[in-house]
């Protein structure tokens, strides 16, 4: 699944759409030195993708992003 996310990210970037992986679980940060396992949190961290969303995004931008996501075909 992570490779599907990465493939989609490459597809979006190739089409001029900025995307990132920004979610990182706090329990995995070295500062906290936690040994707990939070499976749902770790799953989300490995499967989420941030797409553009902000106050100045236009309807045309939204449509382009949606169409680009729909056009993605993973191997």
Task: Give your account of this protein's structure.
The chain is mostly helical. Helix content is 45%, strand content 0%. It contains three helices and no strands. The chain is elongated. It starts with a helix and ends in a 5-residue tail after the last helix. The mean pLDDT is 90.
Descriptive labels:
75 residues, 45% helix, mainly alpha, single chain
Which percent band covers the strand fraction?
Answer: under 5%
Helix content: 40-55%
Structural class: mainly alpha
Strands, count: 0
Low-confidence stretches: none
Report, as a whole number of angstroms, the end-to-end distance: 12 Å
Q: What string gives the helices and strands in order?
A: HHH
> What's the gyration radius in Å?
15 Å
What does the overall shape look like? elongated
Tell me the number of helical segments per DSSP (H or I, 4 or more residues long): 3
Largest sheet composition:
none
Mean pLDDT: 90
Topology:
Layout: H1 2-14, H2 39-47, H3 59-70
Overview in brief:
The protein is an all-alpha fold and 75 residues long. The protein is built from three helices and no strands. The model has no long low-confidence stretch (mean pLDDT 90).
């Amino acid at each position: 699944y992570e490779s599907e996310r990465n493939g989609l990210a490459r597809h979006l970037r190739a089409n001029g759409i900025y995307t990132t992986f920004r979610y990182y679980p706090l329990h995995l940060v070295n500062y906290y030195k936690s040994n707990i396992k939070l499976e749902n949190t770790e799953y989300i961290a490995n499967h989420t993708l941030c797409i553009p969303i902000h106050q100045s995004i236009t309807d045309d931008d939204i449509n382009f992003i949606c169409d680009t996501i729909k056009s993605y075909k993973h191997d």
